Amino acid sequence: MPDDAPATARAEEEAIIVIDNLSFSYDGGRTAALRGVTLEIQAGLTTAFIGPSGCGKSTLLRCLNRMNDLVEKAAITSGQIRIMGHDIHDPKVDVIELRKQVGMIFQKYNPFPKSIYDNVAYGPRVQGVRDKAKLAHLVEDSLRKAALWDEVRDRLDQSALSLSGGQQQRLCIARTIAVKPKIILMDEPCSALDPIATARIEELIAELQEEFTIVIVTHNMQQAARVSDQTAFFNMGELVECGETARIFGNPSVKQTEDYISGRFG
Amino acid sequence: MRGRWRSADKLLTLGFSIGTYFLLFCVGAIFGKIVMEGAPVLLRSEAPYVNTNFFSKSPMTLHEFKDEEGRLLRLDHDEYRQYRKNNPGAVLLEERSISHAGGGILGPLVGTAMLVVLCMGMALVLGISTAIYMVEFARGGRLLSTLRLAIMNLAGVPSIVFGLFGFAFFCLSPVFPVLTTEPDWDRSILTLPVWPGGGYLSFQGWGSSLLAGGATLAIMVLPIMVAACEEALKAVPRGVREASLALGASRWTCVRTAVLPQAAPGMLTASVLGVTRVAGETAPILFTAAVLSRATLPWENLEGSGLFWVSNLLTQKVEALPYHIYIISGQPGGEAIDHMRYGSVLLFLILVIGLAMVSVILRSRHRKDSH
Ligand SMILES: Nc1ncnc2c1ncn2[C@@H]1O[C@H](COP(=O)(O)OP(=O)(O)OP(=O)(O)O)[C@@H](O)[C@H]1O
Ligand SMILES: [Mg+2]
Question: What was the ipTM of the complex prediction?
């Protein structure tokens, strides 16, 4: 089973995400939000993006599932992103297919104002799954994986908005899992949650690591240290340093990184 | 110096407040007069407290005369015939008849209601699709601004122009088909026999009809409708779209399953407000839908069945409240017709203000919900 293979064994293949000299602009090229970012993300690993506010972490993350397509005038000005071997901006690449492979969890949990069940079933339904039994199975499976099943099994038909913030965020995770992506992007998934809910999401992330490649943006250094295998530190739209989390936090090679991690700036 | 400024200040304030009070007075006078004169027409002092005749009859001729004892009687045509039958030999003095002044308001009420429903249906379809295109799909650029400009210009066009346009376009131009057993062979450019039943689908224009009137009103309300639908779409948080797209939905699926359900209440309430604005227009329906008076309600004595019945229903002229008011306002008849004037106007005001209030309440409730 490839899922059980140690991450190091797969590191020899091409990385699941390859970001190659990527520059990105929100205003048609006048100012750059990202400058020459080169980064590889290995399958099965969890990568944390850290850096001061406005340094472009979200921008890079949103490039990975082409969420920035929605923003007018925003575009890549140079470089490319390859995910599972495909240049994601290749006209032949179907953005919908890409987004099925690369799921996203947002900073502000955003369930639809529908029932809990319908939220989780949304993705499969969009893909044309109509079979009731299959849907029910998928929903249960996804909710279990998101560690939410026991809390909501008796109220699947209630509105998702009746859940607590932490539950809503886990619902969003379940909703994403239901689409069966390979990669899950998380943009500060805990920043709107209290410490207990945050701890639960972190536990959940630890479980999801078994199955998914995760990229997580966080402002919380402890969180980055706890959940990630790799850490990438950004500043002013550039990748300053990237490496194994233990090394970045223990022995960063760039002074800037050390300053940021120890809280001297940012 | 300061003193002078202060007195100028006072003078100005006085002037402004006089202006405001004058406005208030005007509003009070208008509404006061209409309510004072109209309420006795609509209401009765004993159960059922409303003038049932006024609501259950259509406008008809009013007969005014004095009977042999010199009592002044005002009877609508039905009552008049009854009276003549009961008093065969009666001598009527100073008899005169005033058209449209008798009976009630049922016909125009029904006609306007049908026009409004049709208008709203068509305007919603057109307005929603335009707004969806503009907000969700059009990628900025010249096309979009041209479209906006065109729609904005539409808002400034006088209503009579819409009336003429509607007449030329919907009534006369033969691209619009009707289902009928007796096609107008001269006007029809294409007549397709419909099997079974032996009618025709005839492309002969809608003629002056409910359909043409509703469509004309719909075009007229379009600027408001599009603006309202745009606002409703834009009010849906970006997170909703992102969530949907991130789950692998296509743009259209995203709009259909995530955006529209949230925008729908806003669209609906705003459209009610838009429709109340055009419901009172006379000019657009003058040539396209309105008829001075008719003996039956639209669905009475209709021929055909199924779709033919529907087509026949929708291709008739109807009485309409604003047109009715327009007619009775310009018609001689003095005191005898006043009750009809004030009654109609008051009812009309109540309807329009009621609808507007409903939409405002709905909208504020909807706004509260979405925050
Ligand atoms: N939709 C947008 N349109 C224009 N500029 C944007 C947009 N989103 C972000 N930016 C700009 O791009 C830069 C990077 O923003 P980004 O959101 O990626 O930062 P971030 O690292 O995620 O910050 P934070 O930690 O505060 O979330 C910022 O200067 C920001 O102002
Ligand atoms: Mg961010």
Answer: 0.89
